[in-house]
Amino acid sequence: MVTFWAMGYEGEVVAQLLPDFERAHPHIRVQLQQLPWTAAHEKLLTAFAGDALPDVCGLGNTWVPEFAALGALQPLDAKIAATPSLDAGDFFPGIWDTGVVDGKVYGLPWYTETRLPYYRTDLLAKAGIARPPRNWDEWRVAMAAVKREVGPQRYAILLPLNEFEPLLNLAIQQPDPLLRDGGRYGNFRSAGFKRALGFYKEMFDKGWAPRVTNNQISNVWDEFGRGYFSFYINGPWNIAEFKKRLPKEQASSWMTMPLPGPDGPGASVAGGITLVVLAHSQHQEAAWQLIQYLSGPQVQARFHGLTGNLPSRRSPWNTASLANDPHARAFREQLERAKPTPKVPEWERIANEILLVAEQMVDGKLDVDAAAAELDRRADLILEKRRWMLDQAAAK
Amino acid sequence: MNGSGRLAGWMFVAPALLVIAVFFVLPVLAALALSVTDFDIYALADRRNLRFVGLGNYLALLANPLFWKALGNTLYFVVIGVPLSIAVSLAAALLLHSRLGRFKPFFRTAFFAPVVTTVVAVAVIWRYLFHTRYGLVNWALSGIGFDPIDWLGDPHWAMPTIILFAVWKNFGYNMIIFLSGLQSIPEDLYEAARIDGASAWRQFRHVTLPMLGPVLLLVGILTMAGYFQLFAEPYVMTQGGPLESTVSVLYLMYEQGFKWWNLGTASAVAFMLFVLMAGITSGLLWFARRRGAE
Considering just the CA atoms, what is the radius of gyration of chain A in Å? Predict the structure, then answer.
């Protein structure tokens, strides 16, 4: 008996994939429990404190460093080495890397996401932009042209002020790491991060982006259809949403494009779900069989068919439904360049501070230098305990 | 009292004392202990990572601008919201109590209805009402020539909107208490006042208000204690934004404790709020005692 926790809608759908696994492994029974996303993190930590974690779990990949630091995850290096049929090179390198902490592999990527711009082909054409921008300068030209075209009531791009993801994706394209000295200090005063901050601020200052949060946009798909904004940096789940929610006559008026970088196509944040085996599990071998099955190419292709989630390895992308989907093509290209966020347990808190400081900067309360300094100050405070822990470990 | 009587007395209160000890005293002591440590996920992994920090959490909070901002937002909410809420409740109670009123059971139910609805469901509807471009409120305002207001997105308007929401949501509860208070005022007092030629306003000022004194005190303390614990409204409507203008003390505690698992800091926030509320409540009681309202 293997217990398996999975989150959200995917947690329901994965039940359809389990009978095949149980047929192939008659001695293993899988008990699936679905967790809602909003309560998942608390439930996992409480389960850890109460020693009630399952055998297998699908973790948001930014949580892997946290649970690895807790000692809750089983390193998989030995199992991977003993399984020649598992082709680690088939996974997108940046996605695979999200499961690796301090050189140890803690998980197999299951399904994945990254962010890139959705854009209105018709509005760009109207504004005289023939092909989607590939670097920031071309993007500036395109946004200025769109803004001129749509007038004062509408905008070129939507960067919701309560999301850190758009800014973080611009920042991860930079050569400078976001944290320095092994994650002991923030590195937000680096030239690269300031460049990203500056570009982000510019989009608001020039009136290309409205100063709004998601709360003020009651329906982002309708607004995209109405042309309230022409670029929207978001994840792959919106392919299905836009197909479903935009009227038929607009079906060919939008497309996805790789995320422009400072000089040519840039990186983006490697997100997604990683399958992990919990360290205390009594069924290590069965748990390993299960995560190997779920991250296998055929199963990933089937899972994509059921949910629309993007596979974390390359071979399933050759199936017809993905290879022939023009909206998915940019994601296929973008995933090759995806990069993980810094692998420290404090990262989500720091990302939240990025959101708060960026909002103040956009509001005109801070300039780029002051925002960068403030972010470093906040990050260094959050990382104080981590520095102490690393020093303790080094002293031993 | 003899020995066996005393024992019997203790036996009778023992179950209640036990419940209070287990579910109140122990958690409070544990939280107090937590608040002088830096308990976080590292400490959850290994107790050796737990550090005693003394008053460190409290000092760090006092040095944290967000804490002061949260405190300021909470005080703003309490100082405007509590009097407004009490005034609206009293006005509604007076209307319902008036002999001229019609359909009283209907209005009593209608005014009380928001109290029994779920905060979350109603907050979602309010978010639509106060939507900048499609909301009913801005549509009505534009009808009489006002520019649209970004109710929940403008840092200056977000807290007033939340206050309006909270007042609307809660006034029915106090209204019922006031109504029972009004009904217990003897009618002959009004009769005497009328014979003396007192106007309606002076009857209210010199008969109703003094007779309602103890009720007012009770309602004031209950409402204040409730309003200091502002959480659900910003949690659902604004998530503390825009620009942290609706972060309340309790919201800060929730973020620290349940989002980031900094239980040490979160406990310190809880105790600071407790001290503040205890201080203000006893101040209010002292004031009322001096005025002889008790």
Answer: 22
Rounded to a whole number of angstroms, the distance from the CA of A38 to the nearest CA of chain B is: 10
Radius of gyration of chain B (CA): 24
Cβ separation B153–A349 shorter than 8 A: no
In three-state secondary structure terms, A389 is helix
Q: Output the domain CATH number for residue B144.
A: 1.10.3720.10
User: Could you tell me if B238 and A214 are in contact, meaning their C-beta atoms sit under 8 angstroms apart?
Assistant: no
- CA dist A113 and A271 (Å) reads 5
**How much is the average pLDDT of B21-43?**
92
Is B26 part of a structural domain of the chain?
no
pLDDT band, residue B155 (cuts 50/70/90): confident
Whether the bond between B242 and the residue before it is cis, its omega within 30 degrees of 0, is yes
Kindly identify which residue of chain B lies nearest to residue A359, measuring between CA atoms.
Answer: B243
Task: Tell me which residue in A45, A218, A389 faces B44 most closely, judged by beta carbons.
Answer: A45
Q: 3-class SS at A73?
A: strand
- Nearest CB to A69; choose among B45, B132, B241: B45
Token pair of A76 as six digits: 């998989």
> What is the β-pairing status of strands A30-35 and A185-186?
unpaired
**Considering only CA atoms, which of B78, B80, B90, B89 is closest in space to residue B209?**
B90
Q: How is residue B131 written in tokens?
A: 């939507």
Position B52 in a domain: no
Fold of A2-114+271-324: D-Maltodextrin-Binding Protein; domain 2 (3.40.190)
What tokens were used for B30? 């544990």
pTM of the model: 0.82
Q: How many residues does chain B have?
A: 294
Contacts of A349 in chain B (CB under 8 A): 260
Q: Which residues of A are less than 8 Å from B260 in CB distance?
A: 348-349
Chain A to chain B Cβ contacts (< 8 Å)? 60
CATH annotation of A116-268+343-390: 3.40.190.10
The alpha helices in A113-206, defined as continuous H runs, are 121-126, 136-150, 165-171, 191-205
ipTM attached to this prediction: 0.71
Pair type for strands A231-234 and A116-120: antiparallel
Residues of A in contact with B150 (CB under 8 A): 216
What torsion, rounded to 10 degrees, do the Cα atoms A242, A245, A248, A253 define? -30
Whole-number Cα distances in Å, A199 to A139, A207, A340, B88, B152: 11, 13, 21, 49, 27
Could you read off the pLDDT of B134-154 as tens digits, one per residue?
A: 888 888 888 888 888 888 888
Q: Give residue B63's domain range.
A: 58-291
Contact (CB<8Å) B152/A162: no
> CA dist A165 to A340, A358, B30, Å?
13, 11, 38
Distance CA A221, CA A243 (A): 10
Q: CB-based contact (8 Å) between A181 and chain B?
A: no
Contact B152 A71 (CB under 8 A): no
Q: Which pLDDT score, from 0 to 100, does residue B44 have? A: 83
> Cβ contact (<8 Å) for B237 and A69?
no
Domains identified in chain B, total number? 1
Residue B267 lies in a domain: yes
Task: Assign 3-class secondary structure to B54-82.
Answer: CCHHHHHHHCCHHHHHHHHHHHHHHHHHH
What's the token pair of residue B262?
């900094």
